[in-house]
């Protein structure tokens, strides 16, 4: 039996509609500029960091924001589609008929770097999120116990980057303060 996502010869670049028949097998199916990316479910340390970060952000989020997981961000032409570990967006978008968030609706995307595929978050998604115009991208590195905050996206990447260790605070997408020692405990 042939896997539904395998094609003997690509007829064109991968697009979002090609993922509609993807199997519910626990793997994450994403597209970067027409190329299919398949990643396994995260290991427990990745999940633990993500869980702690989400709870800390949710506790500080105003009621008009959603701090969510497993919702994709889709470029308008369908050739780039990412599923960030966390995404923050306006609560008014809940219940809509969108298959995924447009990049402008993602107030913040967060990826926790996994040791098995760090280049996805550090290189591919960094370029991809900037390319589609996601305003703010956090790269969470549990091994280094730091969060890299990237802002001001452009065609050549993000123009501003700040590394945070210890305490971290900011005003966007809402005022927050994080004790990274508790996130990386």
From TrEMBL:
<dbReference type="InterPro" id="IPR012296">
    <property type="entry name" value="Nuclease_put_TT1808"/>
</dbReference>
<dbReference type="InterPro" id="IPR011335">
    <property type="entry name" value="Restrct_endonuc-II-like"/>
</dbReference>
<dbReference type="InterPro" id="IPR008538">
    <property type="entry name" value="Uma2"/>
</dbReference>
<feature type="domain" description="Putative restriction endonuclease">
    <location>
        <begin position="17"/>
        <end position="175"/>
    </location>
</feature>
<protein>
    <submittedName>
        <fullName>Membrane protein</fullName>
    </submittedName>
</protein>
<dbReference type="Pfam" id="PF05685">
    <property type="entry name" value="Uma2"/>
</dbReference>
